Amino acid sequence: MKKRVNKIALCGCILWSLNGNVFAAEVSKSVYYRLQKVDKLLAAKSYAAAEKYLHQGLKSRLSNYENAVLYRSLAAVFAAQKNYSEAIIWSKKCLKRNALGSTAKQKLLFSLGQYYLSNQQQAEAWKIFQTWNKKNSDPKPKTAMFLANIFSQQHEYTTALNLVKSAIKATSKPPQAWMQLQLALSYKVKDYTSVLMVLEQQLHAEPNNKANWQQLSDAYFNAKNYQQAASIKHLAYQRGFIVSESELIDLTKLFLQAGTPHKAAQFLQQAFTQKTVSQTKDNLELLAEAWLQAKEDLQAKTILDQVIQIKPSAVAYEKLAQIYSRQKNWQLAVQFFLKSLELDKFQQQGDSYLLMGVSYFNLRKASQAENAFEQAILYPHTAILAQQWLSYLNK
Q: For the whole model, what pTM was predicted?
């Protein structure tokens, strides 16, 4: 009849027994019982007695493996007392014996790294954790999170993020702190897919938290998905989270950036009507820009006339000039371009110089047109068109 094999854990040591009799190939019976006794002393926090008992055991005739096991137990006794210097010494003695199995050796190396860390020897700890991580590709979740924090402190953000992801994947309900670390690390490495995943999970869990809506919108913005960023922020507005004037203006600008100028104009016009946004010069200019981008020249002109009544503005004159240029009213276009330049430089410099050149050309004022095109050629986005016009003029 086969005898039952039991697995016994003592002081972090894994021993195999056969009906209570330890295999001679591992440790002798006397060492086994000594480790049992030490285990009880540690449980009772009788550290001095445990230390003395282990030192007595080291005086016996021992195998290489038995020495290693007792050294490791001594390291554990000192670590329990927060005497990390001694814990380091005995751990290194154990490793020097090169008697532990692969798994036991990796566990001790990890403990040694922790001892170094607790002993304020960060450089030594870092070397060990780097090596340990390379040889242990699938650590347990809590171990992975511990390492993630270590790697993050060393600015190894990609490795840290991979560790966090593996920990979260292996945990049914990961703590919020783990999700926050994943979020922070994802921002560090610009992994916006991971950022969005975490933020969407947070928003689903806490839909009444305004910060979650803001963070998700910002993340889409950073990922250059302006339409989704605007949609998320607009949903936040509909839920009552976007209320201040500055927030409403930001949402208007986001609609513009998302390529939806009609929505931007209608949204801001409604805010004016509801008196949630004041009709200042800057806000009216923003509304005019929205109508201009939406190709609604009549509405834009009406708003720009309001701006000029409040205070003559270089921006308002420039936008009116663009409208007249689009309508091929070259005389008024030039007139308003010049009015704008009297007050300040063009806001849309290359575009406005190009349009002014076209206006002068259609008025058959070649010299002024050439001067305007020479200014437009200084700006990258209008340089090619301006050069083509100059080439045409100089034929």
A: 0.65
